[in-house]
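Morning - zinc ion inputs below, output right after.
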Amino acid sequence: MEPHPGDVVLVPLNRREEVGVVWDAAADQSVPDSKLKAIAGIIDTPPMRPALRQFVDWVASYTLAAPGEVMAMALRVVAPGIGAPTTGWQRADPPTEARITPARQRVLDALAEHAPRSTADLARTASVGASVVRSMADAGLLVPTVLPVAPPFALPDPEHPGETLAPDQQAAATALRQAVAARAFSVTLLDGVTGSGKTETYLEAVAECLRQGRQALVLLPEIALSSQWLERFERRFGVAPAVWHSDLTSRVRRVTWRAVAEGAAPVVVGARSALFLPFPDLGLIVIDEEHETAFKQEEGVVYHARDMAVVRARFCAAPAVLVSATPSLETLANVEAGRYHRLTLPTRHGGAVLPAVAAIDMRATPPERGHFLAPPLIEAVRQTLARGEQAMLFLNRRGYAPLTLCRHCGHRMQCPNCTAWLVEHRVRRSLQCHHCGHAVPIPEECPACGAAHSLVPVGPGVERITEEAAALFPEARRLVMASDTLPGPDAAAAAAHAIAAREVDLIIGTQIVAKGWHFPHLTLVGVVDADLGLAGGDLRAAERTVQLLHQVAGRAGRAEAPGRVLLQTFSPEHPVMQALVEGDLAAFMAREAAQRRPGGWPPYGRLAALIVSADDAAGADALARDLGRSAPHAEGVEVLGPAPAPLSVLRGRHRRRLLLKTRRDVAVQPILREWLGKVAVGRGARVEVDVDPVSFL
Ligand SMILES: [Zn+2]
Ligand SMILES: [Zn+2]
């Protein structure tokens, strides 16, 4: 069989066979014929289409990643045998005479609806070992059957009656529908205050895309926290969409991938990796919470899914819709320059009003010694609970305390692999590094001076606030929402349901409580440390703090009862606190823009970071020095560093950073390629490139 561009093929490489794709580049004449090997076979799977191949090339070129590395993201689920049928089990009919243990009964119950299931799926659903399933097959209780390849992706019905939209929403929905119907590339920012019904509005664009017979992709920053989003989708379209994220089982991933490739999954909601799915006819990409840093992938191919989504939309001749209550300065600058359209939803849906925000000056009304909640916040929580309403305390820090030190000698408990303190997790009785995962039991004695019971926690984490709240409000039913207390989508969904059903009075949470939740009975949000995010002092610290705290505040007062937000701060006069109290985000962003524009900082200039790492400090210094010496010199180009990274040791590797800063009209990629080509990278050393960096650690 003659291979064509896009075909997924098996090729011999050393002594293995690897999956590859036939590319449409010109043949490389520098490789002699004698070195070429024949393709071992074409895999029976939909070929990679031109728009996706173009996208792969573009991402590789922009991020300076190897094209094969980017292609692998698009092919991750394709392995030899993807076309092969998978075997599952169904109940024997009639059943044989065999002993039915409770475990076996659970397996039979899991098969009650006659849909066959795989061994792994059955074992998980029925909470039994795989051996139970096999023994039932041996006993004749189960019979093997081929699992259907076609997934149960129901077709969302665009005419299914959805919620009634307010006039603002209708106007925005009409504009979005027109953008989809135009079947052309465009970018629109849907900018609506928290609780304005942005989701219901852009779901009308999804409905139009379905009417056009094209596929739609919705990217969410944290798909594990999207149970309420999925419910909204189902209310609008009658069925659930296909979901794509890294926690799916390999079988579901394969089936979903194939359904997308064959056009059988009309709507996909996913994490950033869904951008690389093989849509044959993508007609719309929505990026919800476009300001979220979770869209930036920091490992492997370093890319920003929001920005790459816009590129993918261009290759597919489709509109991209960026959605946020707190748009990033990047996106606002694109609106201002006329590159993006903007639609606004200025008021809350259903007559609800935005919460009143006030600062609590921690210098004027400090908490009791050794405590973290100030008297005005305690009083506000007490009153809220007394009215039978819900309150939330927000602190963006997991664990019990961020630092543990010895009261005798001052020794601080530090991670052996990273430049970071160990964080006490009292529930698990351990000290953990939040960067590398290193964990040790809390020692009885100080490892430096040997004093017994001398280690004390310094500062609060969410566990410590929970302890304080338990003492202050013993009657309140409390729920902690943090990534380590709510592992996975099911736990997060259960928590959201408990809150909506008023089974909880007081929620204590980290940044995951800021994520788009709709809690109608929540009327008070207390921010325990509003200054926390400002400490790092990187380029976007103020912008990110405003976005996060505004999102958290936006959880309050989303139904009839008005909401109230209290910010505990040591600097109530800080522009961030002023912007939040006055609710004037536009003025704040204008001020940010005015600060970044003169120096040519993003979005008014470009940045690329080089992160040098090596097994030892000398190796990292030598390579960083070499890079510094061969730094590019050109008009509109500047190199900052080398300097030790803030995390100068991470997972045992020593790190240095250099920053390339250019004018906006200068392309950084050719400069970076030439620069990197001049420097030899020795054994054990590495240079990672981060174009448009978001994190500066
Ligand atoms: Zn560590
Ligand atoms: Zn000590």
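Note: The CA atoms of residues 278 and 646 lie 39 Å apart.

O.
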